[in-house]
Write a structure and sequence with these properties.
Layout (H helix, E strand, L loop, with lengths): L3 E14 L8 E14 L3 E5 L6 H8 L7 E6 L2 E2 L5 H8 L2 E5 L10 H11 L4 H15 L14 H13 L5 E5 L7 H18 L2 E6 L2 H7 L2 E6 L2 E7 H6 L4 H10 L8 H8 L9
Parallel strand pairs: 3-8, 3-9, 6-7, 7-8
Antiparallel strand pairs: 1-2, 1-4, 4-5, 9-10
Helix pairs in contact: 3-4, 3-5, 4-5, 5-6
The structure holds adenosine-5'-diphosphate.
């Protein structure tokens, strides 16, 4: 049986609303009783519209947010209430990439990639070797001394990926990593993430509001709506026979440019050998 690398067990996250005079105060649930399991080697997509609770969920995986109730385990350790010092070795095994890339504008490409190694006090010669390896892996050797402002969006995200890989993580969390990119660049970045998964065996959890992203590279998916995971499973199973209206809406949106008479054909092309519920 596959090894669970991340498990969430009945996780709830409430935020307190600040009640001004006459306004309702109290708690609102950003994540509402979510249980899920990510296995080692998965590319696990979490899809949902804005405000569905995806970021909050992912932030609980590296304890940037703590659950109000329920339990989160990562790499075999229950991190639900783990103190900062004990979290450190676990966080080191988790890389993160973001929609806005979050690069240092005053550092070069090489310096950005080396940053997590510096924080961990790696020797200078190791840092240089590792950065060179990563520049080759993401295809940016010729841009080592450029600054982020000199790069395209796709190149910036490749730097973000290289930086996230610097400390050899076992898990990569990607928060809308391709949402700021055009379709062609999105495909390039997704292909790179697939290589990260296949070549290094890194488990990837990616959150997105774009079905094409999940369809492109994920093997498993959880669909979120209003803080809940409304369905989850093998990508093909979930999208070939969607049970929930929100999942159907994602498929309909993904097919919005496809003429009605070609939709079934398109779905069969995307999911060969599967019977697709016609929308
Ligand atoms: P998504 O990533 O799917 O867009 P989020 O996890 O960002 O969703 O947000 C889920 C809900 O939680 C939203 O209603 C959002 O306003 C609320 N929320 C997220 N973070 C906070 C916070 N720090 N304080 C208060 N409310 C928050």
């Amino acid at each position: 049986m596959a090894e669970a690398i991340i498990t969430l067990d009945h996780v709830v996250k409430e935020f307190h609303r600040r009640g001004g005079s006459g306004k309702r105060s109290g708690a609102s649930r950003a994540v509402d009783d979510v249980s899920l399991r990510v296995d080692r080697g998965d590319i696990f997509g979490i899809i949902g519209y804005s405000g569905a609770g995806k970021s909050t969920l992912v932030r609980m995986i590296n304890a940037l947010e703590r659950p109000t109730s329920g339990a989160v385990s990562v790499l075999g350790t229950d991190i639900t209430a783990l103190g900062e010092s004990k979290l450190r070795p676990i966080r080191q095994k988790i890389g993160m990439i973001f929609q806005q890339f979050n690069l240092f504008s005053t550092k070069t490409v090489s310096e950005n990639i080396a940053y997590p190694l510096q924080l961990d006090h790696w020797r200078k010669d190791y840092q240089e070797r590792r950065v060179a390896e990563l520049l080759d892996f993401v295809g940016l050797r010729d841009h080592a001394d450029d600054y982020p402002a000199q790069l395209s969006g796709g190149q910036k995200q490749r730097v973000g990926i290289a930086r996230a890989l610097a400390t050899n993580p076992q898990i990569l969390l990607a928060d809308e990593a391709t949402s700021a990119l055009d379709p062609e660049t999105t495909d390039e970045v997704l292909a790179l993430l697939k290589r990260v998964n296949e070549q290094f065996g890194i488990t990837i959890v990616l959150i997105t509001h774009q079905m094409s992203v999940v369809q492109n590279i994920a093997n498993r998916v959880a669909v979120m709506s209003q803080g809940r995971v409304v369905e989850q499973g093998d990508v093909y199973d979930v999208f070939a026979a969607p049970r929930q209206p929100v999942t159907k809406r994602f498929i309909a949106t993904a097919l919005s440019g496809v003429p009605q008479e070609q939709r079934v054909e398109q779905l069969h092309r995307d999911w060969p050998g599967r019977i697709v519920t016609v929308l």
